[in-house]
Amino acid sequence: MTLRHRWRLILRISIATGGAFAVATYILGHQQAFFAPIAAVLALMAGVGMRVRVTFELVLGVAVGVLIGELLILGIGRGAWQIALVSALTVAIATLLGIKGMALTQAVNSGLLLAAVVPLPGATDPALTRFLDALVGGLFGLAMVVLIPRNPVRDIDVDVQRLLRRLGGVLSRIAQALRTDDAALADLALEEARAAQSLVDTVSDTATNVAEVARMSPMRWRQRDDVARYVDSVTDLDNAVRDARVLARRVSAMLRHDESAPSGLDEAVDRLVTAVGIFADELAQSDEFDEAREELVEAARIAMSSLPEIVTVNTASIAAQIRSLSADLMLASGATRSELDERLDFD
Fold it and tell me: Can you tell me where the transmembrane regions are (predicted)?
């Protein structure tokens, strides 16, 4: 990723760290405000969809850690064995309180810092200082997400288009395998479909992230409906990729057993490819999905009508998977279950 694409992240980090340090140092009067910028970075760089939770855990963990550390230090002082005792007791007490994850990490870190770092003469109480620094840094990190947000629709659109292009490529290869009776092509399509799972995971992470941005930032509230449409489609797209894997596996099995592909199955898969291409081109305009849905309905109709009087497990499964793909892609486009029942249940 180039610097041009990271300008927003650079701006967020610079403002959040500098602002958190300035507030903690010059407004709150802390002489060792090193944790304020650290907390800002932790909140900013938290896992997708977890920034509010991470900020809460930062503050909670620090509060528990400084409470335990301060009480112990008042009684036993500072030193190597005191550090060992503080860390052990902090983990034990935090576990009993049900604290885990980032909160547990910060609880231990806070207790250790209190036990290891000797406050400067005349410095503010380190327990209170550490707590306030965590709060200031976390709030600055959140503020940067709210005030300098990414474009959530653009972000998820890029990832979904990448996934749809991969899915279209897999289906194109399957259609070619059906036309040429080439089991090796079907096997290659299966490998590509399996590799597409990483793209599905990326889309899922992006969906969580953009939903958080659209929810938190007033600047992006007008995009919440569009973001919700994308987010709602993630599960259905995941199912479509899984359907494609099963479809490729069944086509490979059919061809390896020297079964002839029923006439029309390749055309049905080609219709799926066309629909996926329309989705990729028109994601930002949901009113353009009617054409794609017509292709999906036709794909399912052709597949079911292509079945011969005597079917094998593989041919029946292939037709069923084409219908499943049509259904999942229609759901991803916003179709309802009742619409699926009405349009995909053929006599």
Answer: 9-28, 58-76, 82-99, 130-148
What distances in angstroms separate CA 20 from CA 100, 138, 197, one per listed residue?
A: 25, 9, 39
Q: How far apart are CA 302 and CA 68, in angstroms?
A: 69
Biggest alpha carbon–alpha carbon distance for the chain: 91
Kindly indicate the confidence band of residue 87, based on its pLDDT and cuts at 50, 70 and 90.
Answer: confident
Which residues make Cβ contacts (< 8 Å) with residue 56, sequence separation at least 6?
103
Helix (H, G, I), strand (E, B) or coil at 31: coil
pLDDT of 191 higher than 90: yes
Rounded CA gap, 229 and 211, in Å? Answer: 10
**Other Cβ atoms within 10 Å of 57 Cβ, number:** 25
Q: Which of 262, 322, 326 is nearest to 294 (CA)?
A: 326
Q: What is the DSSP string of 192-252?
A: HHHHTHHHHHHHHHHHHHHHHHHHH-GGGGGGHHHHHHHHHHHHHHHHHHHHHHHHHHHHH
Fold entry, domain 152-344: Methane Monooxygenase Hydroxylase; Chain G, domain 1 (1.20.58)
CA distances from 243 to 64, 133, 253, 325 (A): 48, 50, 15, 6
What percent of the chain is predicted at pLDDT more than 90? 31
Residues of the chain with CATH 1.20.58.220: 152-344
- Mention every residue, 6+ apart, whose C-beta is less than 8 A from residue 66: 110, 111, 114, 126, 127, 128, 130, 131
For 46: left if phi > 0, alpha if psi spans -120 to 50, otherwise beta; the answer is beta
Q: What is the pLDDT of residues 14-56, one digit of tens each?
A: 999 999 999 999 998 887 787 788 878 877 776 545 556 666 6
Q: What is the pTM of this model?
A: 0.70
Tell me how far apart the alpha carbons of residues 30 and 11 are, in angstroms, rounded to a whole number: 25
